[in-house]
Amino acid sequence: MNSIYFPPEIGGLESHVYYLCRGLVGRGCDVSIITSRSQKKLPTYEVMDGIKVWRTWLPARTTLGWSIHGVSSIPKLGKTISQADIIHAQTFQSIFPAFVANRKHNAPLISTLHTSHFLERAKNPLWRTIFKQLLRWPDYNLAASVEIADVTKGILPNVKVEALVNGVDTEVFRKTSPTFTRSSRICIVVPRRLFKKNGVDFFIRAMPLIAKHKDVEALIVGDGPERNNLKNLAKKLGIIDRIHFLGIRTHAEMPGILNSAQLAIFPSLMEATSVAVLESMACEIPVAASNVGGLPELIDNKVGGLFEPGNPQALAESVISLLDRDDLPTLGIQARARVIDKWSNLRLVDRHLEVYRDLINSEQSTTNFSPS
Predict the structure, then answer these.
(1) What angle do the packed helices 328-342 and 312-323 form, to 10 degrees?
(2) Which domains does the chain have, with CATH numbers?
(3) Cβ count near 234 (within 10 Å)
(4) DSSP 8-state secondary structure symbol assigned to residue 42
(5) Along the chain (372 residues), what's the average pLDDT of each consecutive run of 10 residues?
(6) What angle (nearest 5°) sits at the alpha carbon of residue 113, between those of residues 141 and 288?
(7) Phi and psi at residue 118, in whole multiples of 5°?
(8) Residues near 311 by Cβ (< 8 Å), separated by ≥ 6?
(9) Are 348 and 167 in contact (CB under 8 A)?
């Protein structure tokens, strides 16, 4: 497997790839992943929960940096691929190096298209031309949302692509003891990295409106370039005492943090899909989220609510309406049941194994065929 990022990096992609790999190892698969050495102190090789993790140079977290990392990872990919039955490129950045490294071995190649990076770049004519070529190389493509799958078909109409929402480990993310003792205030959690696209500033602008009706406080989990701006905005609006910026937290810490809240908020302006939403739902936390991207595929009024993106008034009204409900805990129970039914990591692993076996069997049939 090849992925630009992997734990201890934190994010939806990283969480998805880690839990998928761990689930495959649990089914008896020999899993190796080539990823970036994205932090200076990380080892170039380690075994993590049975996953063989190889890390190669990443000069910068930019398009150029990703490209250099991809090219420089080809030798290591080539050595690993020579022993592989299937090659899986996670994210579009991984397709080119996986394809080049696989040319001698010619194992089946599958890709998964994640994140708003793909959706954003797909609007650009130059990137669409690049994607049109990249998407021809895999034997099969998975997309983390219906929206990504539709955009993929718009770029290359005959492409083989299947929408498969990322999964969550429901044994890890479940109802558990809260990390933070609840005060008399209602606690809201916002598990979002602090980038413009995640819309956390609109949540902070909504907080004074919410606080007029409900005595609330918020846990903001994540870090990023917008942190200082968001703190200054909270001070300006007079609500800094109601907002706790927790910074980056590990995956192991998240169940306890999520269970400290009664409601989770996702004010994103752009979102392909969201593992963090599924993790909140798996912890029986109802979710209010922007009506954007892949989020409506996960959320409706039976497990939370949707609101107009970039609209603090709509966000506040949605939150107040949910907090007014007597059956809010019931929404959380239904949310977990939905995740278990549709998006558990067990189901995700099952589907990946089905796709892998189909591709391997198809490849073997083609190899063994000889005309009479």
Answers:
(1) 100
(2) 2-167+344-368 (3.40.50.2000), 186-342 (3.40.50.2000)
(3) 22
(4) S
(5) 91 89 95 93 95 94 88 91 92 92 91 87 93 95 92 94 91 93 88 94 98 96 95 97 94 94 96 89 98 92 96 98 95 96 93 96 61 38
(6) 130
(7) -65, -45
(8) 202
(9) yes
